[in-house]
């Protein structure tokens, strides 16, 4: 059997490795548009900050490891068209166009940065950040032009990581965000704390501002817009989110679903026979909403790829669903979330109650205790946990604490059940009641549940 995979990142590689693990006789070929298989693009901001000096160390696995697992990798090869009826993939590489036959096909084409038609967005010095090549181009520009000022457009998690990265690299950074606060994935009270952290590190944050034009002047880029926005910078990073890379699927007649993600079953089957898809190119089953959503994350891409690979060689595994669990570091603060925010819960038809709780991350008598903020959202009628958000110090184990909420949410817990979890404690790390449990107790008391 010949399993053909388009894409050599989280979803594609996970699929190929799982297929070979379960069915070692399967011939697995990956068609990869660039020359970088299995790199952690999540690590790009840390390469650009200088914290990870060598981009090669971003590789999840070496080429030799991938090949010894039985994956045949076709680099610098672009998939141009699928003919589902003939089970053919039309590809193009340096030597021209050709056809590859498949028995099963998996699409792991990922996402592409949203690039609105702002005049000047393609000027030299204005960069998206999604691929290894994007990061090399940006790095080269900062070095060769000896940039000292940067503009980041977009206050989502990639924009924030890039503001942190470029500031860490010594540039003066301005961040522009259209919304009233940064990090719209969490509620405004936490977003404001993230803004304060940016400002504490001398990042100029302009919210409620819209870039409408870039122009090149004397080797700089000037961004103008509303209200009275004018920022001059040596380098600009545009981080306005991503959209699924769905054209290959769409042109082959595969159905699209939530926000243009390729429509898939929970077995990662597309609407065409013998074609699976996984990762940022697909819509994603949401475990709390019980409906498809579009939440492109590396964690999800790895899981879905593995499931697509397993099912392509005869398995019948289902994706359990995303909770949208995510975490981001901004200088010395970490923000994380899982499940639904209050407004999302209302929109989904729940009757949510949200409480916000402030506590120490460990016993305050032990040095270096930091305050952390926890927002818990639960359903007033059923008492079920619906989501949680957190903000704390970089050493407050925010990511792992949100994972406790994520695990409870995965198993459909009620908020009050968190109190009974047997969590670890020693004064340097926690309290007899962990912040997760204290915030759950606070929710139960405030919701009078
Ligand atoms: C800067 C940054 C930071 C991030 N940080 C995090 C994080 O901290 N945590 C997290 O969970 N997620 C993070 N993400 C998101 C995460 O990286 C993605 O969700 C993940 O990479 C998706 O994997 P994928 O395999 O679906 O797609 P991609 O990684 O986008 O890979 C797509 C692959 O398909 C190939 N391809 C596309 N079209 C074709 C074609 N026509 N022919 C051949 N090949 C093709 C590409 O070359 C590539 O190999 C981050 C993303 C970025 C950009």
Q: Tell me, what's the shape? A: globular
The total strand number stands at 25
Fraction of residues in helices?
25-40%
Low-confidence stretches: none
Mean pLDDT: 98
Alpha-beta classification: alpha/beta
State the helix count: 11
Concise description?
The protein has 449 residues and is an alpha/beta fold. It is built from 11 helices and 25 strands.
Topology:
Elements: E1 2-6, H1 10-22, E2 27-31, H2 44-49, H3 63-68, E3 71-74, E4 78-83, E5 88-93, E6 96-101, E7 104-107, E8 111-113, E9 126-127, H4 132-144, E10 149-153, H5 157-168, E11 172-177, H6 188-200, E12 204-207, E13 210-217, E14 220-226, E15 229-233, E16 235-238, E17 242-244, H7 247-251, E18 275-277, E19 284-286, E20 291-293, H8 298-312, E21 326-330, E22 333-339, H9 342-347, E23 352-360, E24 371-379, E25 385-393, H10 398-410, H11 435-447
Parallel strand pairs: 1-2, 1-7, 2-3, 7-18, 9-16, 10-11, 10-16, 11-12
Antiparallel strand pairs: 4-5, 5-6, 8-17, 13-14, 14-15, 19-20, 21-22, 22-25, 23-24, 24-25
Helix pairs in contact: 1-8
Bound molecules: flavin-adenine dinucleotide.
Describe the structure.
The strands form 7 sheets. Strands 3-2-1-7-18 form a 5-stranded parallel sheet. Strands 9-16-10-11-12 form a 5-stranded parallel sheet, covered by helices on one side. The chain contains 11 helices and 25 strands. The mean pLDDT is 98. It has 449 residues and is α/β, with parallel strands linked by helices. β4 and β5 form a beta hairpin. The chain is globular. It binds flavin-adenine dinucleotide. Flavin-adenine dinucleotide binds next to α1, α2, β4 and α8.
